[in-house]
Write a structure and sequence with these properties.
single chain; alpha+beta; Jelly Rolls; 10 strands; manganese; Germin-like protein
Length: 203
Amino acid sequence: MATMKLVVVLMMTTVIAVWARDPELTTDFAVPVGMNASMITGDFFTFTGLRDFSAAPNTFGSKKVTHVEFPALTGLGVGVTLLEYKPKTLNPPHTHPRGSELIYVLSGHLDVGLIDSANKLYSAHLHEGDLFVFPQGLVHFQINMSKKKSVRALSAFGSSNAGTISLPRNIFGSGIENEVLLKAFKITSAELMKLKAPFMPTM
């Protein structure tokens, strides 16, 4: 009986692990519905949408490339995002529920950090050419501390659609009842309104 229970647990663990990843391909690559495979050329495997990317002045900006923007990624378990941090800008604390992230600094210096499930902070000051990995699902952030220079970086993901949960936006802009937030953060109503203000819909 104990052996049977162990088998069931192992089977369920395997199923959950599979669901948490991109679907396994049974062909060389995924051909979009309605597309004739014999008509596919090298253009299908090429993405040019990052060529002219630039963040707006005084902001952090990013351009993601998932299977939505680049169908050739479907089922391959990879995705990328080009990031630009204007001076003194932040990519706020967030998580990626479906994939780990490996960030590569293309230019400038970038401060990064992640927090594990034991609430321990791991931080680093990255230089051009440095890599830092954010394990799947862990809260992390990046900030450009320079007052004059922008930073550019490229993040690779272990999923063709890793997803992003931005904690400030998801917590204060998702419609959670005020009473829940007041009790959770032990703040006043006035303080809560200030935190929610940036995420209020504009008329």
